[in-house]
Structure formats: C-alpha cells, structure tokens
Amino acid sequence: MPQIDHTVHVALGERAYDILIGPRLLEEAGAILADRFPGRRFGIVTDETVAKAQLPRLQTALDAAGLSYSAIVLPPGEATKSYSALEQVVEGLLAARLERGDLVIALGGGVIGDLAGFAAAITRRGMDFVQMPTSLLAQVDSSVGGKTGINSPQGKNLVGAFHQPRLVLADLSTLDTLPLRQFAAGYAEVVKYGLIDDPQFFEWLEANRSEIFAGGPARGEAIARCCAHKARVVIEDETETGVRALLNLGHTFGHALEKDTGYSDRLLHGEGVSIGMVLAHGFSTRLGLAPGQDASRVENHLKAAGLPTRLADIPGEIGSTETLMAAVAQDKKVQRGALTFILTRGIGQAFIEKNVDPQVVHGYLEEMRSA
Amino acid sequence: MPQIDHTVHVALGERAYDILIGPRLLEEAGAILADRFPGRRFGIVTDETVAKAQLPRLQTALDAAGLSYSAIVLPPGEATKSYSALEQVVEGLLAARLERGDLVIALGGGVIGDLAGFAAAITRRGMDFVQMPTSLLAQVDSSVGGKTGINSPQGKNLVGAFHQPRLVLADLSTLDTLPLRQFAAGYAEVVKYGLIDDPQFFEWLEANRSEIFAGGPARGEAIARCCAHKARVVIEDETETGVRALLNLGHTFGHALEKDTGYSDRLLHGEGVSIGMVLAHGFSTRLGLAPGQDASRVENHLKAAGLPTRLADIPGEIGSTETLMAAVAQDKKVQRGALTFILTRGIGQAFIEKNVDPQVVHGYLEEMRSA
C-alpha cells in the first residue's frame, strides 16, 4: 500500500478528484494509476530538468504496473508556456495516438502543469489529465483547481481553459532536489493562503517556517492545508466569477512585474507574487484600509524566507510606471475599464475591490519605484 | 420588431441559448444584441469573402445601436482553421482589450464559426460568443452545439473545445450570395438529419429539394428542422459520449477524404460528407445490415442535388487505400484501437457500431476506388 500522508478531496460533482500527498508517490504512481484508470494509456509531459531528476522514477513505476505511455520533454522555464510549445505538446499527444479516454500526465512545476493541462483540455476537444507537481508552487497552488493556460505576448495566462485534473499526486521527495530559490518562490503562495482569510495559518507559518524549509513534517502539513484551502475556494467558485479572485492576492502587481522582466529568471512567479503581496498590503495601508504594522509583518516574514519584497530587489532596470500600469490594465482582473484589485483590511482579511482608481495606483507605484 | 420566422431553443441549463432564423437578421443584430447583452463590447471575426458581402450590413446595425466593436478579417478557406490563425484571432481579441464579459461574434461559415468559437473558448479562459452563420452548412450544423476547433496536420478538428454560443442568428438572406457549390455542400448536412433517424424528413426533402435550392419558404423550414434536430441531440449528449456521435454519419470517411485532398477546394467538407454518407450506406448494405435500394435512393438524392457521391467524383488522384485507412484510424471516433463507424439499417435508421474490423473497411474502400 502506498504511504499517503494526506488526502484532500476536491468535491466538484462529476469533476471531483483527490489530491494525494505522500513522501514517495512517484514510486507508487503505477499502482495508483492502474487502479484508478484501468486500461488507459498515458502521455507524460515534462521538462528537461524534471526529466533528469524524476522521469526515470515515474517510468519505472509505470513499467512495473504494465502501463503503456509515451513522453514529451520540453525546455524548462516560463518561456515554455507559449503557443509553439502548446502546439508541440498537442501534436505529440496526437502522434502518440492517444485517444479521448487516455490521460495526459503533467510531471513538473507550474509551467508544465499549466501547459500540459491546457493541451489536455484542447486535444480531441478534451482529454483527462493527472497532475504530478514537482515544485512547491505547483503542489500548493497551480496543480489544484483546473486553471490551465499559456502566456500571450500581451500578458500572462491570457490564453487557457478551466480544465480539472482527474487526480493530483504530490510526491514530497521531489521538493528535496528543488533549488532553494524555487522553494522560496513557492513559499510565497503558501503565505498567500494565510493572508487571504486565515490569520491562524499565517501565525503557524511564522512559527514553522524553518521546519517547512528544512523538510520536516510541517512541510507536508503546510502543503495539505494549502490544498484544502484552495479546494474550498474552487468548489465555491470554479470559474472565478467571484470569491476565487481572492487567490489572486498579489498577482496583479506580480504579473505586471513578471511581464516587465520578460518572464525570465530575473523574477520567478512566486517572487513577483511576494513583491505583489507586499505592494497590496502597502497600498491598502496607504488607502487607510489596513494597519501599517500588518504590512510590515508580512514583509518581514517574506524577507526572512529569502524572498524579494520591493521593486528595488529586482535585479536590473524595470520599466516606467506607465509600462507597468499598461500591464496592470491588461490583467484578466479588469472589468468594464475599472481596475479590480485584491485589497486587504489586514492579515487574513483580503477582499475584492472592483473600483480602484488607476490614477491612485499610478501614484503609489511611482512612489514605490524609489522606495 | 425583427422578423423572426423560427426560434429554436437549445435547453442546456445555464448554457441554454436561442437560435433565431429570419430573412434579414443582420440588419436587426444591433437591436437584438443591445437588448440581450447590454453594456458589452464585441469582437467580430470573419473572412475576406464574407467581409465584402456581409460585414457592412452588420457594422451598420451595430453602429445604429451604438455598440462598440472591432473586427478581425482572415483569409477564406479551410486552411484558416490552423494554429497560426487561432493565435492571430486570440491576439487580436486581446489587442482590442476585450474583457471576459465581452462577446466574440463569428460572422461566416463553418470555418469561421469553429475558429472564432475556439478562440472565444480560450481567450481569458473563456469569453462568450455569438454565431452569425452565413453558409447553409453553418446554419444547419456547425453553428449549433458548441463544437469548436481547428485542424491538426494529423487530422481534422483534432484540436478544440466544447464551448456553446450564447446566441445564434441565422440570416437567410446571406445564403442568396452563396455559390451554388457551397449551398449544395451544406445541403449534404441537411440530408444527414433525415438519414440518421427521420425518414419522413428525408421524404420531405425529396419532395422539396428544388424549393430549398430556389429559396422559397421550404428553405427556412428545412433549416429550422435541422436546428431543432441538432438541438435535441446536443441536449441529450453535449460532449459526445453517446448518441451525439450519430451526427458523424458519413464523417469518418468524409474526413479521411478531406485530409487526403489537403482540405482544399478539391473537396468541400459537405462534399466529403456526401461521399461518406453514400459509402456508409453502401458499406452497411455490404455487411447485410441495410437494403440496397436505400443506398441507391440516398445516392440518387445527393446526385440530384449536384453533390459528388463516389470516390471517382473527386477531381485528381486520391491516395492509396493504406493512406485513407491511416486517416480513418486517426479520426476522433476511435476507441481502444477498434474502429467506430456510424452504420445504418436503412434510411433513418443509423446506429453507432464500435467494433468495426479495419480489414473489412480496407477491403470495401479498395473496391470503391475502382467503382
């Protein structure tokens, strides 16, 4: 029997699925898949980095269970969330003669999960898929909830689909080979769950951050709590017509900064979110909505985790305030011309504000550039 | 008040929508859209041919209603159902700053409807869209039911999404400028509805074909009956896990022939379906399932409508039987390696057969090549 430390059920009716969290689930993947999806074939999508570290483990497990599969290996990095990589994956799945009832396996971080999930959504008008997230970011955030997609030259995640996985297997051992910078970037999304509506979880993180980074039992517990949180939100609002937008805390600023740095290694997604969350708290303080000491506490915690928290922490030059504002305005969270932001009344008290004045944001960003 | 001859309601719960059929609905489109979608903006997708004949009519109507819109004009033809055209449309919609609540308008035939609907499905993870079909094929078939997509080099419609329109406006006057060959190709899909399960409709078509081609009241009635038929099937099986596959009568052979002729003017989609339906009837007769006189009656009716009915009717050389079989096997209607075909016990008695022996199909095709 596989060792499964935590099971989180995402109760989405006929699209319901389980998130399984355990120390070495890749070794168990063959048995789990053969049990849950008898007679199916599999198309693994991964990147070169993950292929080196994890693909042989998965292949060995699938072979042992007698499962039939093929693998598509892409270059690592955010640039892979492109139209051309999407076409490559779709054509690869078709060339492997995978049928509508077969499954795509997304083995990798957020980039691979988003790309492979989107390819599954549109190949033969919808194939099933399984998430096997290998980064902290993917395990706590992107592998759960069915948001899939690629980036447009005009902005991040502007092209995609809502397509729920049939199963998520989070193997904790894959995090052991993750570079610290990547782990910290994923940690920003962990912190986000506390900041949205769970101040107790934020406090718990303040007390347990070291153990989470060191790999003790708190790590698995943190991941399970994040998944449970996200599952609740997704169940309530699968296609983000309401409360799900809270999960975008820090993301409007973050996406603008990622775009400005060309989705490059200069700023990882989670790093953009870290700066974005600090900006969202600072902006809320500026508007008189939230106490300033909460903003400081957030910044201190993220800084202690090794994350950037200010515009000045981004290496190299960043674009003009006008450039950043244009990116903010192109973000998906714009409705009828007014800017929608996730603001906060303090730690664990985030809310959706649909009528933010672009001029006020402009002034705040202008000031933050020299902070 | 707009003159609406027929209204067909597609009762798909929260995805329900109306199909409106009338003599000059493009002139009424501004008023109808302003009434049903207040405050929204619109992105029109069309092709160069339709743009010349119909776009000014639509623009005048939208202007008169004070609606805001932009337009994307693509080259005409099946080659436009490509990855690159999809990217062009998505980027065009984003560049026009259309938001998630805005609507895409597909103004054109099946190619534009499939492409624009798919672009709507994936832009910002799903925009609403309106079908304004301007070909007979699109009015009776492709604009209804939410199948959207593009072609892969590996086969037709292999990439796409199920995405229902919010409204279908079928303006009968657009068919007056349609070349006869295009009209006839669409008529093949009209005949299909009779062949599936409505022998009375097939008889009615035998009696009314001339009036349908000439543009009398029978034309609107035929279109409304086809839409009502398709709506019933789509309501029962939205994502084609069962009976909806019956709508593919003639399409497995047809798609293989279209692929073989490079999705070119050598063989229009409806022409491929015409030959495919005759082959499906002939093959069913060969298997002892259907009376031979029904196959002859089908062929005679399609021939009288000016449609090709045999492989030899396709201009130029067609590929080897092996090439055609490979295309048949790549068709979406393949499950677990066995071939799925829509076969028939006679006119109006089609059924899904999931265990067709590829060898028998091979032998039949081989023989038909010299028929």
Any overview of this molecule?
The structure is a homodimer of 371-residue chains. In chain A, the strands form three sheets. Chain A has a seven-stranded mixed beta sheet with strand order 1-2-9-6-5-3-4, with helices on both faces. In chain A, strands 10-11-12 form a three-stranded antiparallel beta sheet. In chain A, strands 7-8 form a two-stranded antiparallel ribbon. In chain A, α1 (25-36) crosses α3, α7 runs antiparallel to α8 and α7 (180-197) runs parallel beside α11. Helices cover 48% and strands 19% of the residues of chain A. With 371 residues, chain A is an alpha/beta fold. The interface between A and B is large, with 37 and 37 residues.
Shape of chain A: globular
How far from one another are the termini of chain A? Answer: 54 Å
Quote the average pLDDT of chain A: 94
Which bin fits the share of residues in helices of chain A? 40-55%
Give the quaternary arrangement of the chains: homodimer
For the record, what CATH class of the largest domain in chain A applies? Mainly Alpha
Q: H/E element string of chain A?
A: EEHEHHEHEHEHEEEHHHHHHHEEEH
Rg of chain A: 20 Å
- What count of structural domains of chain A? 2
The appropriate CATH architecture of the largest domain in chain A is Up-down Bundle
Q: Biggest sheet of chain A, open or closed, and with what strands and sense? A: 7 strands, mixed
CATH homologous superfamily assignment of the largest domain in chain A: Dehydroquinate synthase-like - alpha domain
Strand segment tally of chain A: 12
